[in-house]
């Protein structure tokens, strides 16, 4: 009977008991308590301890498990962690990793140590890793693994299955067999199901799928991720400029890319200019947050200066100052909503420039409806609260104009940034908020100025 999956829960009591076992070097307790815990959960546990303690825990586990856990650590943590390892110890666990994971870890080591570790890897892995190190980390070549299953188009099914058994020794997971010619040029792939159900005398050329997607070694990792997301692929072959099969990229590698992109865009939208985490140094966190805060301060000073230009109007009707936060907040929210939707569209491969006009028209009508509804609502509320028809009309007209303009700015800004080669997520954060604050005040006070003439 299959045992139900028990989710690991890291509680304070468990952590304290585990710390006690570490302090007492209670190997038996540590080994027993981690026996049924999955590698990913052990990785989470090790974040609670320093590098020396984590190394001690890993030393009690099988080498395959050690290698998987170290590979799962985030890059910054792993760099600190590997400082307590000797090159020979790094060699031991790298020999148990796929070539792409081994290459990623080697890239994080100092050059001298990297060369020493590389020279100590087993020959087959060393050849694969050396080839991967030629590529930048953010392209398909740097993302791919060399381990894969391939077959010649002229092989029989029985010959192909025999070769799969030999090649599969170095491949953890594979979903299909790639078909190549005598020069390793990618021709297509054949599903394992087709190999199993076909007659043993059938030739691979008669059953393989010819029209398959592939990516070039120089393609950016973000493009690879988009392709695999769009077509729901578990893996995709990688070819060089001569269409020769040189590796494959699996979904777990792409998930890392998607997560990194999401983290980067989230931080950009929050006005954080560097890739930082909560446990980074105070100076690094300050440096990452300060630029956009300074821009916000500059925008606030400009707002104050701008309001000073309308001192006469403020003196005549002081109540107009009460509605400044309403105008700014609404303009900022509308701009963020519009820019967020466009940023989401730009991340979709189906987004095309030919559809821009239709999008603008749709955004305009949405802004009109929102503006009308909110303006009428605010007009009625102001008449009831203040009993001043003219003031209510000024605020409502200004609010309607701000919503329309802010929606337009929120739509156009990410498109312009994207066209200029900047990350459009910039438009969904402090950039658009500061812009719309200035825009909102401009529209509001000009409306006030015109209606008080």
Fold and architecture overview:
With about 450 residues, the chain is mostly helical. It folds into 3 domains: about 10-140, MgtE N-terminal fold (Alpha Horseshoe); about 150-260, CBS-domain (Roll); about 280-450, Tetracycline Repressor, domain 2, CATH 1.10.357.20. It contains 21 helices and 6 strands. α8 crosses α10, α18 runs parallel beside α20 and α19 packs antiparallel against α20. The chain is elongated.
Number of strands: 6
- Sheet with the most strands, sense and barrel status: 3 strands, mixed
Which strands sit side by side, in order, in the main sheet?
A: 1-2-3
Low-confidence stretches: 1-6
Give the radius of gyration: 30 Å
The shape, in one word, is elongated
Mean pLDDT: 81
Q: What is the count of DSSP helices, taking H or I runs of 4+ residues?
A: 21
The CATH superfamily of the largest domain is identified as SLC41 divalent cation transporters, integral membrane domain
Q: Would you tell me the structural class of the helices and strands?
A: mainly alpha
Question: Which strand-content bin applies to the residues?
Answer: 5-15%
Distance between the termini: 85 Å
| Helix percentage | 55-70%
Any idea what the CATH architecture of the largest domain is?
Orthogonal Bundle
């Amino acid at each position: 009977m299959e045992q139900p999956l028990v989710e690991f829960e890291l509680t304070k009591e468990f952590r304290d008991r585990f710390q006690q076992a570490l302090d007492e070097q209670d190997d038996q307790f540590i080994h027993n308590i981690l026996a049924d815990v999955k590698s990913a959960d052990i990785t989470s546990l090790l974040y609670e301890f320093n590098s020396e303690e984590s190394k001690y825990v890993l030393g009690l586990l099988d080498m395959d498990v050690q290698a998987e856990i170290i590979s799962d650590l985030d890059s910054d943590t792993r760099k600190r962690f590997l400082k307590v390892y000797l090159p020979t110890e790094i060699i031991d666990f790298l020999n148990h990793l796929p070539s792409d994971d081994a290459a990623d870890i080697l890239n994080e080591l100092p050059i001298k140590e990297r060369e020493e570790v590389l020279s100590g890897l087993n020959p087959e892995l060393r050849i694969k890793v050396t080839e991967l190190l030629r590529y930048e980390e953010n392209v398909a070549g740097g993302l791919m693994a060399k381990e894969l299953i391939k077959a010649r188009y002229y092989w029989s099914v029985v010959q192909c299955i025999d070769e799969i058994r030999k090649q599969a020794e170095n491949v953890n997971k594979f979903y299909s067999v790639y078909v190549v010619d005598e020069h390793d040029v990618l021709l297509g792939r054949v599903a394992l199901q087709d190999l199993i159900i076909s007659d043993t005398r059938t030739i691979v050329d008669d059953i393989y799928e010819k029209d398959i997607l592939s990516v070039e070694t120089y393609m950016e990792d973000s493009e690879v991720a988009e392709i695999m997301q769009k077509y729901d692929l578990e893996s995709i072959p990688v070819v060089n400029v001569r269409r020769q099969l040189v590796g494959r990229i699996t979904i777990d590698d792409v998930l890392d890319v998607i997560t990194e992109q999401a983290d980067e865009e989230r931080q950009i939208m929050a006005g954080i200019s560097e890739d930082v985490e909560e446990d980074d140094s105070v100076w690094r966190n300050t440096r990452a947050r300060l630029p956009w805060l300074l821009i916000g301060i500059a925008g606030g000073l400009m707002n104050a200066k701008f309001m000073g230009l309308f001192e006469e109007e403020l003196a005549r009707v002081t109540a107009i100052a009460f509605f400044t936060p309403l105008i700014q907040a609404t303009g900022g929210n509308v701009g963020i909503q519009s820019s967020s939707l466009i940023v989401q569209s730009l991340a979709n491969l189906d987004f095309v420039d030919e559809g821009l006009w239709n999008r603008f028209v749709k955004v305009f009508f949405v802004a009109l409806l929102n503006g009308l509804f909110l303006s009428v609502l605010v007009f009625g509320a102001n008449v009831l609260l203040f009993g001043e028809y003219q003031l209510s009309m000024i605020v409502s007209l200004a609010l309607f104009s701000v919503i329309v303009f802010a929606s337009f700015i929120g739509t156009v800004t990410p498109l312009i940034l994207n066209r200029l080669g900047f990350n459009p997520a910039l438009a969904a954060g402090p950039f658009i908020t500061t812009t719309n604050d200035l825009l909102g005040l401009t529209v509001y006070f000009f409306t006030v100025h015109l209606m008080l003439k």
